[in-house]
């Protein structure tokens, strides 16, 4: 691996998984645009899948008691189907239009949440299967399906601690579905795994610092961070080729 590629990979993993640890999602939304500077989409997805595997092994174990298990179970079937379809498109398709559509959809959701959603505790779960399917699809395709799961989990769980933990559980579910399929399709290789081992110190530092910051933030700040990340990710997906 060239030194320039290595340094960009270190930076992307650190920034992505620092954010991932703080809010429970959005690691790929931060890391993917950086990785695409020096590598193709398939290699970027392979590395992200490995670090999501490492992240899930740490965070799911720590947050298991706070995860909303019924929400996670409800999303399982849709996620497995969606991830499988997304990886198939990743290998055989040219999904740029879908990427821009996802970006536009995220931006519309942020606008809707800020300006039109009333302060209510109504649990909006009617479309959880559809959002789970779409989230799994874009997770398999770009590792960027997190915002679609946010739309389900955010309107179902009561507090931000449960939201964050459930998002961590959802991404763990995506990971254990995605990694074997990527490997079977020869998108994820032994070389990716070998190279990833040299980036683990950066990943562990990001996880430690993210956990430290999370403990100091209140719920309102976390909610604003979630909406801010959704807006930024939507803009990046919409304008990035």
Automatic annotation (TrEMBL):
<feature type="transmembrane region" description="Helical">
    <location>
        <begin position="96"/>
        <end position="117"/>
    </location>
</feature>
<keyword id="KW-0813">Transport</keyword>
<feature type="transmembrane region" description="Helical">
    <location>
        <begin position="193"/>
        <end position="209"/>
    </location>
</feature>
<keyword id="KW-0812">Transmembrane</keyword>
<keyword id="KW-0472">Membrane</keyword>
<feature type="transmembrane region" description="Helical">
    <location>
        <begin position="129"/>
        <end position="150"/>
    </location>
</feature>
<dbReference type="InterPro" id="IPR002781">
    <property type="entry name" value="TM_pro_TauE-like"/>
</dbReference>
<dbReference type="InterPro" id="IPR052017">
    <property type="entry name" value="TSUP"/>
</dbReference>
<feature type="transmembrane region" description="Helical">
    <location>
        <begin position="71"/>
        <end position="90"/>
    </location>
</feature>
<keyword id="KW-1003">Cell membrane</keyword>
<feature type="transmembrane region" description="Helical">
    <location>
        <begin position="44"/>
        <end position="64"/>
    </location>
</feature>
<dbReference type="Pfam" id="PF01925">
    <property type="entry name" value="TauE"/>
</dbReference>
<feature type="transmembrane region" description="Helical">
    <location>
        <begin position="221"/>
        <end position="239"/>
    </location>
</feature>
<keyword id="KW-1133">Transmembrane helix</keyword>
<protein>
    <recommendedName>
        <fullName>Probable membrane transporter protein</fullName>
    </recommendedName>
</protein>
<feature type="transmembrane region" description="Helical">
    <location>
        <begin position="7"/>
        <end position="38"/>
    </location>
</feature>
<feature type="transmembrane region" description="Helical">
    <location>
        <begin position="162"/>
        <end position="181"/>
    </location>
</feature>
<comment type="similarity">
    <text>Belongs to the 4-toluene sulfonate uptake permease (TSUP) (TC 2.A.102) family.</text>
</comment>
């Amino acid at each position: 691996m060239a030194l320039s590629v290595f340094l960009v990979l270190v930076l992307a993993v650190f920034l992505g998984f620092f954010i991932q640890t703080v809010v429970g999602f959005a690691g790929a939304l931060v890391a993917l645009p950086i990785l695409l500077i020096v590598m193709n989409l398939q290699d970027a997805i392979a590395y992200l899948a490995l670090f999501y595997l490492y992240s899930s092994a740490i965070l799911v174990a720590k947050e298991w008691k706070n995860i909303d298990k019924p929400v996670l179970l409800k999303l399982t079937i849709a996620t497995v189907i969606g991830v499988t379809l997304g990886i198939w498109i990743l290998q055989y398709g040219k999904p740029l239009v879908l990427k821009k559509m996802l970006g536009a959809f995220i931006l519309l959701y942020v606008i809707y949440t800020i300006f039109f959603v009333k302060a209510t505790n109504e649990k909006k779960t009617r479309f959880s299967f559809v959002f789970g399917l779409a989230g799994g699809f874009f997770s398999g395709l770009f590792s960027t399906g997190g915002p679609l799961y946010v739309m389900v989990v955010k309107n179902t769980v009561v507090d931000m601690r449960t939201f964050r933990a459930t998002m961590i559980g959802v991404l763990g579910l995506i990971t254990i579905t995605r990694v074997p399929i990527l490997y079977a399709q020869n998108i994820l290789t032994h070389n990716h795994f070998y190279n990833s081992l040299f980036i683990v110190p950066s990943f562990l530092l990001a996880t430690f610092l993210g956990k430290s910051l999370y403990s100091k933030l209140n719920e309102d700040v976390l909610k604003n961070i979630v909406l801010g990340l959704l807006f930024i990710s939507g803009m990046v997906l919409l304008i990035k080729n």
